[in-house]
Design goal:
With 318 residues, the protein is α/β, with parallel strands linked by helices. It has one domain: Zn peptidases (Aminopeptidase). The protein is built from seven helices and ten strands. The protein has helices spanning 40-51, 61-75, 141-161, 188-195, 224-240, 257-263, 298-316, and strands at residues 2-3, 80-89, 95-105, 112-118, 166-172, 206-211, 220-222, 246-250, 254-255, 268-272. The strands form three sheets. It has a six-stranded mixed β-sheet, sandwiched between helices. Strands 1-9 form a two-stranded antiparallel ribbon. α3 packs across α7. The protein is globular.
Length: 318
């Protein structure tokens, strides 16, 4: 993802009038549909399993092996799994084979929720304080594995407990191949998916993107573009979140997968760790060789997963 030049603490939530009547989660929790609490420890183990493959850089053996594992893991929890293979062009002008991996729950349900995370990792640790590490790949425990882990564990729980909602889990590829100051070079898998959705005319109620959702000291403020395009949904999600990592503040702007989804006409919210006290706008391990399992927490993953369960529970009541 790319931190936009616009940083703000004064987003007008009224700018997204089309979804101001978003799902009301103020009084609904997962307990109202008799769900278990989200298991953050199980999500942490799923993040570890991804990292055990090594950095999941596109066009590497680790990437191919992880793709197979993600497909098999989703098949155990979803009604249908689609592996969307494509060729995209990188910011360096080179062709790159990618795989978007899509798990579909309740494919016949008309009311649908889109959930996303990117599963690839960056080929270059170009934000590392040691310049010698700039050509090394990033492990992506937080930037990649954390969001995927939450969605995989969520799918497991919904399989065990059932849901009336239609849910599409889209694990997008090649998010992190971008180069600075070139917005279109980021989120290549998502850009492809918006042009070739897995269902023709796909229109969910809204989408939720998870990115870097594992740090022990994560700060989830309401991201600018999320408020601009999907303000009502963003506010509803933050009201549903009981964990202390969800901060009742408007945050900065970031070019992430949700921007391209919003441009395609699907309101989408980014739950992402943004740091106003950081030069990069992100956590210290971002795009460094230190983005490893020691820097993510089961507690944080649990809070994010519980927020998603609370949103799903509220939609099931409608």
């Amino acid at each position: 993802m790319l931190l936009a030049t616009l940083l703000t603490t004064c987003v007008n939530s009224g700018s997204s009038s089309s979804n101001d009547a978003a799902v009301d989660t103020t009084s609904t929790t997962s307990q109202t549909v008799h769900r278990n609490s989200f298991d953050g420890q199980a999500a942490l183990a799923l993040a570890q399993q991804q990292c055990d493959f090594g950095p999941r850089v596109p066009a590497t053996p680790a990437h191919a092996k992880c793709a197979d594992w993600l497909t098999t893991t989703l098949q155990a929890s979803c009604d249908t799994v689609i592996v969307q293979q494509a060729s995209v062009t990188t910011g360096q002008g080179k062709p790159l084979g990618i795989k978007n991996i899509i798990g579909v729950i309740n494919p016949s349900a008309e009311q649908r929720l889109l959930l996303l995370a990117h599963w690839d990792t960056r080929p270059w640790a170009d934000n590392d304080p040691d310049q010698a590490n700039h050509t090394k790949p990033v492990m992506g425990a937080n930037d990649g594995a954390s969001g995927v882990a939450v969605l995989l564990q969520l799918a497991r729980q919904l399989k065990a407990e059932g849901t009336t909602l239609g849910i599409d889990i889209v694990l997008v590829d090649a998010e992190d191949m971008g180069i600075n100051d070139d917005e279109e070079s980021w989120c290549l898998g998502t850009q492809y998916w918006t042009q070739h959705p897995h269902v023709a005319g796909y229109k969910p109620l809204f989408g939720i993107l998870l990115d870097m959702v594992g740090a022990p000291d994560a700060r989830f403020t309401r991201e600018y573009y999320s408020m601009y395009y999907a303000g009502g949904f963003t506010e509803a999600i933050w009201r549903s979140a009981n964990g202390g990592h969800f901060i009742n503040e408007n945050g900065g702007a970031v070019t992430d997968d949700h921007v391209f989804i919003n441009r395609a006409g699907i309101p989408c919210v980014d739950i992402i760790d943004l740091r106003s006290d950081s030069e990069t706008g992100f956590c210290p391990a971002w795009h460094t060789v230190d983005d490893t399992m020691e820097h993510i927490s089961a507690t944080t993953l649990g809070e994010v997963g519980q927020a998603l369960l609370n949103v799903i529970a509220s939609l099931e009541q409608e």
